[in-house]
């Protein structure tokens, strides 16, 4: 049975070229980058080259990049680190109801520390209004966090417009760009963001890698205490092999961005075309066009999402849901719940996400399998 992986928004396979890029840092350049001897200098060279390249891809400077263990740590470092360091300047924070849990749970923690948080609503296409951001601001607002591209629906937020709203306000602007890195052009200065979080494992890099862009001059409290790595902002010996791999992954995906986006849009049209031809009942969650090309979120009314995912898996198709399947029960997606009043929409939603290694024949086959399962489960 052919196994078809359509869950690249969760994690992605490491590209062979990325793996090859990492190997020398395990075998030859294995020194601690903080050491002054030759072994350490060789590792430091790889670390510096990665930092310099990554900074350049987003319009940042070398010293504005902080390597982390992933997007969640980067989000936490920016949100909790900045809020706690500047609590004397205000206790009001703004975010949205559709953020990744790496962001939402950071704000929930801050609420327990006495901060007040405004959670903005999304419309039925999954978009946040910059006008709503403007209306939410007060004299006590010190931080606003709005993700760049949603991990469940692919909706791309008006980050640049929000940056313009905040231009003359004291609040700093954080964006979670984990799903957008490599897929969309990102320039921190054009966007007007002060913090940007990203991860390597969504772009065919290794798990456990990420970075935080922090605009020069901003102060924030570290989350880890120990050595003086990352300019005293993130203690702990850097994972040089994985960071080198993340750099290579970013090089590859940027060089292929246009062709990949075109291919993934064709995959999306192909899958929906199969659904249309079969005449099954479905609803697309998120923008009809203009979102992240690799994400397609679809609800199949009257089909239980847990049963759907299990049947897809039995047929060799890996997909996911924004819902959490635990112990035979399922909680509705917090993203889709924020978008729709009808809970059935979130209880029947499947996210298909495309990536490296997928082919048109795989996508067509997966769509045909999905049609067969929907018919069986809905009794139609």
UniProtKB/TrEMBL annotation:
Residues covered by the Aminotransferase class V domain: 4-365
One MF term in the entry's GO annotations: iron-sulfur cluster binding
Cofactor(s) in the UniProt record: pyridoxal 5'-phosphate
Substrates-to-products reaction catalysed: (sulfur carrier)-H + L-cysteine = (sulfur carrier)-SH + L-alanine
Enzyme Commission (EC) number: 2.8.1.7
PROSITE patterns in the record: AA_TRANSFER_CLASS_5
Keyword Ligase: no
Keywords in alphabetical order: Iron, Iron-sulfur, Metal-binding, Pyridoxal phosphate, Transferase
InterPro entries: Aminotrans_V_dom, Aminotrans_V_PyrdxlP_BS, Cysteine_dSase, PyrdxlP-dep_Trfase, PyrdxlP-dep_Trfase_major, PyrdxlP-dep_Trfase_small
PANTHER family from the UniProt entry: CYSTEINE DESULFURASE, CYSTEINE DESULFURYLASE FAMILY MEMBER
Protein family: Belongs to the class-V pyridoxal-phosphate-dependent aminotransferase family. NifS/IscS subfamily.
Protein name, UniProt field: cysteine desulfurase
């Amino acid at each position: 049975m052919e196994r078809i992986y359509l869950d690249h928004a969760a994690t992605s396979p490491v590209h062979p070229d990325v793996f090859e890029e990492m190997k020398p840092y395990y075998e030859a350049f294995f020194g601690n980058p903080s050491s002054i001897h030759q072994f350490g200098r060789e590792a430091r060279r790889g670390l510096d080259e990665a930092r310099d390249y990554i900074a350049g891809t987003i319009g940042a400077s070398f010293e504005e990049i902080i390597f982390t263990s992933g997007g969640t740590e980067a989000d936490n470092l920016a949100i909790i680190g900045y809020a706690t360091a500047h609590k004397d300047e205000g206790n009001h924070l703004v975010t949205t109801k559709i953020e990744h849990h790496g962001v939402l749970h950071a704000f929930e923690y801050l609420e327990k520390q006495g901060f007040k948080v405004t959670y903005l609503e999304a419309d039925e296409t999954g978009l946040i209004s910059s006008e709503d951001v403007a209306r939410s601001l007060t004299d006590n607002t010190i931080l606003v966090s709005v993700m760049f591209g949603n991990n469940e629906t692919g909706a791309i937020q008006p980050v640049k417009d929000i940056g313009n709203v905040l231009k003359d306000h004291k609040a700093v602007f954080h964006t979670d760009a984990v799903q957008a890195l490599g897929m969309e052009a990102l320039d921190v200065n054009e966007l007007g963001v002060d913090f940007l979080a990203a991860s390597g494992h969504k772009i065919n890099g290794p798990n456990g890698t990420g970075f935080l862009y922090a605009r020069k001059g901003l102060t924030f409290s570290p989350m880890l205490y120990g050595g003086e790595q990352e300019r005293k902002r993130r203690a702990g010996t850097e994972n040089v092999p994985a960071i080198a791999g993340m750099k290579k992954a970013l090089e590859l995906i940027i060089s292929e961005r246009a062709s990949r986006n075109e291919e993934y849009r064709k995959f999306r049209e192909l899958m929906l075309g199969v659904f249309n031809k079969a005449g099954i009942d479905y609803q697309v969650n998120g923008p009809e066009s203009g979102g992240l090309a690799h994400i397609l979120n679809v609800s199949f009314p009257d089909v239980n999402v847990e049963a759907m995912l299990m049947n897809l898996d039995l047929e060799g198709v890996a997909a996911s849901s924004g819902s959490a399947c635990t112990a035979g029960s399922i909680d509705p997606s917090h993203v889709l719940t924020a978008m729709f009043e009808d809970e059935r929409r979130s209880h029947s939603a499947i996210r298909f996400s495309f990536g490296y290694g997928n082919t048109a024949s795989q996508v067509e086959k997966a769509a045909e399998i999905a049609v067969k399962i929907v018919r069986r489960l809905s009794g139609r």
